[in-house]
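Morning!

This is the sequence you dropped in the shared folder:
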Amino acid sequence: AVSMTAPTVTLEDSGLFTGTFGGGNGGVVTVTGTSSASLTRSNITTTAAETTGNSGSVAITAPTVRIVGNPDFPGTPNIDTSTQNFSDNPNAGNGGNITITGTNVTFTDFAQLQSTAIGPGTFSKGGTIRITGSESILVGNNSFFLTTTTSQGQAGEMQLSSKHVTITGQS
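The structure's back. Tokens below.
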């Protein structure tokens, strides 16, 4: 597990990885900024591969949350809580949940969140993506969120909750 707490938490051109391969669950990542939290061209990955364990969840909380993708590498997720299992185990794990909470939450420049369950597992599910901005949520400039499964399980839910939600720029 990784927990970061500070007045301002900034990840720029960097990454946090708490995955597992072959056993157990992916680690949980918690980021708390008492003023702001931002990911700029950065990644948080909690993947679980070839295991019955689940991917870790990611929670980001701050009054101002800003997630900026990487236009040079579109399709690279900023936050990835996916599980991958290519064995025939019907009990493969689930994708982890992604929870982002703030007053104003912004995603821009190919920002990507994903929680997928990839593999033939009968029950594997994608994780839930839950974004809450008490004042506003802006999703812009080719940003997108993905929760899905390739198994017989269900995709996770996607929830955006705010007074003002704006989706623009091919997002």
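Headline: The CA atoms of residues 40 and 68 lie 5 Å apart.

More detail when I'm at my desk.
O.
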